[in-house]
Amino acid sequence: MIIRPILCLASAATALMTVAPCSAQTRESNDEHPFVVPLQIPAVADNTPSSLTGKWGGLRTRLRDDGVDLKASYGSETAWNPEGGEQNRITETGQFVFTAQIDTEKLIGLKGGTFQAVVTYRRGQDLGAVANLGVLQQVQEVYGRGQTWRLTRFFYLQKFLDGHADVRFGRLTMGGEFGKFTCLSENLSFCGSPAGNLVGDYWYNWPVSQWGIRGRLRNSAGYIMVGAYEVNPRNLDNTFTIGYFHGATGVLLPAEIALTPRLGEDRLPGSYKLGGWVNTSNGNDVALDIYGQPAKVTGLAPLQHSSRYGVYAQFQQQLTGRATDAQVEPDVVQGLSVFFNATLADRATSTNDNQFATGLFYTGLLRSRPKDDFELAIARTHVNSRTWIGLPPGAARPNSEYAAEIDYGVHATGWLTLRPNLQYIVDPGGLSSKTNVVIVGMKGSVSL
């Protein structure tokens, strides 16, 4: 029984190394993070990124020189649960990403302008659903929001003041702007903006976008950023569209301030962010009805709140090794980095009201593999205790789910990364009565 899943994982890895096109989280998903473990695809001598399909006979390079950058990738996530859930299964899910980016200065002479369009397609199966794991956070983060085509980004960015100020507007991904965090892990607890993991019914992370605008002032010491985004449940529809112009229920107003120090003689980069948001849409109370009584008892419509809100803090610091010397967006070249994320949502309307995650990255752990990276992370996702109100005696009362993941990123080529991982989830769904879940996974990425 155990040998077959292992062979399936091995087959998936072999496919990734040969013909399967895959890429999950390359630099495009971290394009504004102050610093990240290096995920960007190395460039060849003519500054064209390495990819499986190469330079297209020089066409790709000529287009880049003229200001038109075309990219494609595929990300694959395979997972098997030898323990936990209702049955032992193995599933694979993935995402295609197609990106077109225009440098307006190169193309038409407009300095400081960038236009970007991103189309995504998600496919595959979710192990959490197939094996009925009952977890709060997905064990394959790339699954979700419908297995469908989406216009994930469609925006214009204009820089001012020699790059110290910029404005971005159009179809934006909320988690790609505020509370942004790198995504090496396969477990959703450690991937992307944590706010979207708690209040995903209105904070839409990748690949769902919405109409929005955000402005930012930045220098080498840090930045301050504010934005306004449409809250429209229709954006969750599994229909490809450039965007909806009716159906909005409110506006999501986030703000974020960050310090980006460089510490010590080696100028090791850090990122210390504080942020918060207010959603002007009405929200259902998680426990009470319109008369302030337990809704689970009365069965009446829930009490309405005129707004929803939350706050977050994200700290990341390189402690040892070397980093690139770029003032604004340095990358870790080698060494140890640590992180801590804390997110709290209002308890009146949020079923999951807080999440904490911490961990470490190490790039170049093995001298013979200087580009490889190692990650160890743990997280807690908490279920709002107000959801217990009105439950009958003896009913399950979910509390917290704990997740841990260890993974190792093998940068096999400039365009291929394989990341075997092991996950352990304690009290899935926040229920101590459930069997803990063990996940053996493989996350792969290929630039096409």
Q: What does this protein structure show overall?
A:
By secondary structure, the chain is mainly beta. It has a single domain, classed as Beta Barrel (Porin). 9% of the residues lie in helices and 45% in strands. The strands form two sheets. Strands 1-2-3-4-5-6-7-8-10-13-15-16-17-18-19-20 form a 16-stranded antiparallel barrel. A two-stranded antiparallel sheet has the order 11-12. Strand 14 and strand 15 form a beta hairpin. The longest helix is centred in the first third of the chain and has 16 residues. The protein is globular and about 70 Å long. The two termini are 35 Å apart.
Kindly name the structural category: mainly beta
Number of domains: 1
What order do the helices and strands follow? Answer: HHEEHEHEEHEEEEEEHEEEEEEEEE
**How would you describe the shape?**
globular
